[in-house]
Amino acid sequence: MADSRWTGGVGARKRRLPGRCRPEVGSVSSPAALKSQNTLGAVDVSTMTRELFMIDKKPVHPRHASGPASGPARATASAGILALGAIFLLSGSLGMPAAARADPGLAQRIDAGIAPYFRPDAPGATVLVARDGKTVFRKAYGRADLETGRALEPGTVLRIGSLTKQFTAAAILLLAEQGRLSLDDDFRKFLPHYRDPGGTITLEHLLTHTSGIPSYTDLPGYIDGMARDMTVAQMIASFQDAPRLFEPGTRFAYSNSGYFLLGAVIEKVSGRSYADFVAQNIFAPLDMRCSAYEGHARHKVAQARGYRAVAGKFGPHAPLSMTQPYAAGSLVSCVDDLARWDAAITAGRLLKPASWARAFTPHKPGGGAPDGHGHGHGHGYGWAMGALKGSPTIGHGGGINGFSSYAMRLPQEQVYVAVLLNSESGVADPALIAHTAAGIAIGKPLGGAGPAAPAPLAPAVFDAYVGKYALAPGFVIEILRDGGRYLAKTNDEEPVEMFPRSDTLFYSTTVEAQLRFERGADGAAGRLILMQGGREMPGNRLE
């Protein structure tokens, strides 16, 4: 993870998982509706909101850049259960191969849309866009190694963080198809030494983050020991006595612990290590030569170094033993392999269609409340369901020490986008890059991250907003002014600069969120509205 965020990371950000995962966002109609980088989920509204407003990066925009980066710059199925999975499978090559649509200018348009987010002398990204099963865009930006000046190449290998979870989910489904386990099995059937107060916790609860088991990356003291090599048993012992957050199946709380336990189940049932199982049963059959559990590469590959931004400069990421992310976030890959993975899913390979459909079925415990990541459409097995300007999406993201990622598919348009970054902060949000590229590929561009220049605003107007606003118990957004800079920060995170669209509406060029202030008759702001992930969350001003 990076810092305290694995999707939050460590340190200046939040505690992110082995890439605190960055799952799919909900309905999106503009960059400002996207989720912030490196967000791991949480259970209650307070954590949910913290994850939605991750402000561990400096805003970056061509006209007002700051920091190291420049350029414009995370129970029951709902109605229509299986519908999204069915759309995905039927729109692919399951008997309906589609010829790639000719569009000679598409690659140039995608490049023009995302290139301004990266600098040639800073950490960057590898990006791939496929349409109708054909690669239509494949490019790298920035450097793989700042010390040597080695450039990133499209085939460079990077950590993928919580994109790992979809491979862990597929491994569980493979074992289920072989009759070696059932998704309705209590996971303690395979891990009987796990101490727990009782109550059934099924494998499906673990897959859908509805187990109530808290994420070990959120537990006190985790960050201090994240560089230590741990056995699977030692890691499980580190979180098994943590109090249950809620009764299984009643709520959603993004949990790296759940996917760690799934990895242990895979090892117990298969008799192989997690690294060997995914290599032999997923990567090798699909010719994914770049992909492996980090440290267990099967082929010689060029891997990027990872970075984080601290005090306006890029430096090494915080140390992390990859024994700790394990089945929740320890895989490495390249965009070419991720495209092979998506093509295999679209073609119905590896698993039966019913298994893929179940993986893409959105789960909304507690009557369908949003899941804490802004996924208003629900979370499946290692994927989350959302929408991009009305088009259904299936995606997820990851944030881990030194790296961040986002991958998404748009089943109706047969478009897939993979974005891998070799920095956990200080660069553009990979979700923003992915949604920008996808919007161009489907003919629904998002538009710019903000206006050509911020709207004029007198500092005295902003001063009326300065103060603290409580969005939920334990979560406060503080509004500050530093000369002519307008800032927002949460808890102990670094401030992020906000730019005015009007006297009451502000946006960030890196964190995908907007803030709107509501003023009373005396002109002072009494309430703040956080707008992100297609949702609005009010926060009352604290006296």
TrEMBL record:
Look up keyword Oxidoreductase and say if it applies. Answer: no
Q: What keyword terms does UniProt attach to this protein?
A: Hydrolase
- Check the record and name the SUPFAM superfamilies matching this protein: beta-lactamase/transpeptidase-like
What GO molecular function annotation could you give as one example from this UniProt entry?
hydrolase activity
Q: Which residues form a coiled coil?
A: none
Q: Which domain of life is it from?
A: Bacteria
**Location of the region described as Disordered in the Swiss-Prot/TrEMBL record:** 1-28
Annotated Beta-lactamase-related domain ranges read: 120-431
Q: Which PANTHER family match?
A: BETA-LACTAMASE-RELATED DOMAIN-CONTAINING PROTEIN (PTHR46825:SF9), D-ALANYL-D-ALANINE-CARBOXYPEPTIDASE/ENDOPEPTIDASE AMPH (PTHR46825)
* Name by which UniProt lists this protein: Serine hydrolase
